[in-house]
């Protein structure tokens, strides 16, 4: 049989590696900035782009899509070529993929800093960037499947299974969650509202973690761990079970982010059941990885790459045990809205994603530059600094989470709440400070890595086109003996793609259909009316400033929450909310019943200088709201968009909406004037006050007999 000579493309891998290194530092710096600004709000510099509400999504997007995203592509482009014994399908598509992804990252950061956001966690980028992501993702998919089609190895190794499952599921998640109605170049409203929007968002949000931060990294683990250990994977059969069970079960688990909320109970219970089931495939994969090191544990002591891999797998195991545990209602009642969730997320992000990425970089770069790592001692130093950083980050956050929940739920002997909300914030400040120290250590370790890899590259010689040879793929001979089903499917990548799509689509369809088609699942409430034009503008400002990053708008049916905030939240309250704003963390108090609680002047002074109204507050000042004006020329477009989305404004209201806006603004202006505060009717602060005074007020003001379903 004739042997074919060809060349692997290392140049694309190199550029993705460089991007991974660069964005790791940028993403971690943004995270450290946000962590410090939590307890030192002056760090915001009275500058809108550097407030926590805008820095937090910049940090999460930079870490998830820039650092981890480039890490995925780096590992896939390297391993796929060697597993398929073929160069990537198209060098041009590789370039389009790389540069397209970097441009999206830069544009995403700039738009988020500028306040252009959809207000949906991990999906904050506005509609033009959603389209760009789709196009680049398709380019990646064509390149990947083109490579698989022209492979010289018939067998598709399990790592490729995980790559295929990742590609099709992320495409599905992104498209479904990104249905939105644009009203301008960088402004849109979610197609879904309230409970439906929350369900779709956390179906996406949970599975973005599953299929962007987990499945591709499992594929990388199945390739790079055996390579680094020089051992075959412990059980190939277990890896197959791991793949199919994981992608089927994971997709159902999203509703566990919405326990005790206004989401229908059946959907919450479904999420809980499948979340608990996730322990089995997740731990099966972890054990498969750790058992691959059998007979190689002596190498772990010497090889920093293996050290990083072992801790990465251990953190994966910890996070995937804790996730199902947090989905149990009795545990979730304690953890949700607290810093426990932040600790849980960062065990996975810092330990699993971060350390596995570092391991791949330490293994790949010496290979591509045909040299040895500059310093194993520095790599080991990085490992220990990073490990200590993870501990100093997560342990204080667990402690803070338990403390928050206990203080929130504490009552005096007289049955009164024992602590004001602000007391729970000031009490855990030392833990926030310790968390930032842990983050700084983790970042310092990454800086050590950058130096080590720079010196490694400097002493090596890069091979852009790595020579390889292999026999062409021979025509398959039909055998009549018994074949395992997976042996058949793994030879047919497109059938595997279709089967993977069917497996992951089942859960989403079954969860969505009743909520979208059965009216009784989302009842309406007679007293709940559409937002006024001024309130719509105020809500857009609220979303722009990322207020949902610190405040929830969801009162759960717990004694302490009802006592602290008011009547628990109902599904019908949110039917006009595009997007929903329930939040997932309470750094500040819940705002679901803030409407009418304080006079207009209180909100004015609170936004101007929070310390004057709440001594000890860690909320930043929002000085620009008192200088910038709302754009009333957009009001008709906003009204028409809401009408398209089903909000029952009367026909032709877009033409008269601004008159109502100015009339309501005049009322707030007069109210503030009575407290010796001068404003213009179109000041952004006036619109924000209008929205805050409306939130939850429909329910508070309605007679009891009017909160019934209509």
UniProtKB/TrEMBL annotation:
It catalyses: 4 Fe(II)-[cytochrome c] + O2 + 8 H(+)(in) = 4 Fe(III)-[cytochrome c] + 2 H2O + 4 H(+)(out). It is a multi-pass membrane protein. One of its GO terms (molecular function) is heme binding. One of its GO terms (biological process) is aerobic respiration. Binds 1 copper ion per subunit, denoted as copper B. Binds 2 heme groups per subunit, denoted as high- and low-spin. Its EC number is 7.1.1.9. It is an enzyme of class 7 (translocase). Keywords: Cell membrane, Copper, Electron transport, Heme, Iron, Membrane, Metal-binding, Respiratory chain, Translocase, Transmembrane, Transmembrane helix, Transport. Pathway: Energy metabolism; oxidative phosphorylation. Cu cation binds at residues 206, 256-257. Its cofactor is Cu(2+); heme b; heme. Heme b 2; high-spin binds at residue 344. Residues 533-696 form the Cytochrome c domain. It holds the Pfam family FixO. GO terms for cellular component: plasma membrane. NCBIfam families: ccoN, ccoO, PRK14485.1, PRK14487.1. PANTHER family: CYTOCHROME C OXIDASE SUBUNIT 1 (PTHR10422), CYTOCHROME C OXIDASE SUBUNIT 1 HOMOLOG, BACTEROID (PTHR10422:SF29). Belongs to the heme-copper respiratory oxidase family. This is cytochrome-c oxidase.
